[in-house]
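It is worth pausing here to work through a concrete case rather than discussing structure prediction in the abstract. The textbook approach is simple: state the sequence, then state the predicted structure, then interpret. We follow exactly that order.
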Amino acid sequence: MRTLGVRSSAAYALGKLGNSSQEVVQRLLALLKDEDSDVRSSAAYALGKLGKGSEVLVQGLLALLKDEDSDVRSSAAYALGKLGKGSEEVVQGLLALLKHEDSDVRDSAAYALGKLGNSSEVAVQRLLALLKHQSSSVRSSAAYALGKLGKGSEEVVQGLLALLKDEDSDVRYRAAAALGNLGNSSEVLVQGLLALLKDEDSDVRSRAADALGKLGNSSQEVVQGLLALLKDEDSRVRFSAADALGKLGNSSEVLVQGLLALLKDEDSRVPYYAAQALGKLGKKNRDLVTAVVQWIEQHQDSEYVGNGIDVLWDLVTGE
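Step two, the predicted structure:
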């Protein structure tokens, strides 16, 4: 058994290393028929990572969708999604796995379908059914897939909206992301995302902010909700809120001052996104230059003054 464990680990490592030479691919292809399921699973995973989607490889992975071992089927589905070969045969093979008894298999199949971007009515209906699955992992992957498919029908939107109140934070996160991708900015949807700006999970708050920025609803309620997140304890939430506000185009004095305050943030990503947001807003409001100049004058002796100078440069040069 030790030898089998070594082969499995070696196959997994080859995928991580990213060497997609013909010799490596051929050796991994041979392992898809190995007697040990761990080896088959690792080989499938590795081939997906390498991204070489030849017909021989795709056929090898398709065969594993019917493997007796659920981990192997799951790895094969994941690999097919990574390869991006969305032929009818591949899509049908993945759709069949959405009814599999193992939740990990269903999860991988949903993820793969999202990667492939097949928005057939059959695929959408199967994924919609999984939004109500008892496994949170499956619900999460189904939400991810529907967001990637980009079919924002009322049925899809309603199904995802329900998940904004899911007990699992990852499901709420995926549902918010999916709704942001679909572009439907109905009042009900916006209200659902606004509620998530106060979610106990920082990743969910961050993703809800991203989604609201993408949807482009610049109502006072949305702007105020995002403004509050500029002072969030989590830096990712702060820069997501800054980025969203830059996209919405509201350049009120309170908003500008809130973004300027982030130029002193300790996490370097936050000043970056705040500067980007100020740059976008400055294209619509040239008075913003005055506010930035005043900020620089007030922070001449600060280690952060360079951030303000960078913003001013972008505003003046129009970059």
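Step three, interpretation. The mean pLDDT is 89. The chain has 19 helices and no strands.
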